[in-house]
Amino acid sequence: MRLTVNGERREADVWGGTSLLTLLRDDFHLLGTKNACEQGECGSCSVWLDGEMVCACLVLAAQAHGRDVRTVEGMAAPESMHPVQRAFIDAGAVQCGFCTPGLVVAVADLLQRDLRPSDAVIREQLSGNLCRCTGYQKILDAVHLAASRTQQGGAGRPAPPGDTPLGDPTSRQDSQ
User: Fold this and answer.
1) Distances (CA, A) of 163 to 73, 79, 80, 112
2) 63-121 confidence digits (pLDDT tens)
3) Are 19 and 28 a contacting pair, CB within 8 Å?
4) 130 lies in which domain range?
5) CA-based radius of gyration for the chain
6) Is residue 140 part of a domain?
7) Single pTM value for the model
8) Boundary of a domain, candidates 38, 73, 108
9) Domain identity same for 62 and 89
10) HSE of 111, CA atoms in CB hemisphere, 13 A
11) What is the percent of the chain where pLDDT is above 70?
């Protein structure tokens, strides 16, 4: 099968029952996409398939043939982090790190559509992502920080890495 992963054309020979998650981790060694529940319940394996966020554990690798896959590794430029990744660090929203890639993908997905999400909208977007370490408040803070920085960056999508203004991680811009 042939597909594009993080902008790079890739080929693989896969068994028909292989999941996209297994292909990404075992064949392409993209370990940011985490293997947790294998039932689409935790969000740790979230990726974009042709721009649509999906749980890679629920998608057969063969379904990605000829398509575009973007993982958490494909979000940042080689020399800098994506604004959402930076905001998670600055807001202290990263603990063990296992759920973080899926949360980062889900937040970036949300901010591509809504740069002023309310807490209720954020909670709904992240409802498919489980974190066993945090109380979620720092994750909400990270979303608001990333949204604020993205708004400062101008465009309707997260600002390109390196162009993101660094702000005070304790300030947040609520949208109501």
Assistant:
1) 19, 12, 10, 17
2) 999 999 999 999 988 788 999 999 999 999 998 889 999 999 999 999 999 999 999 99
3) no
4) 83-153
5) 16
6) yes
7) 0.84
8) 73
9) no
10) 28
11) 87
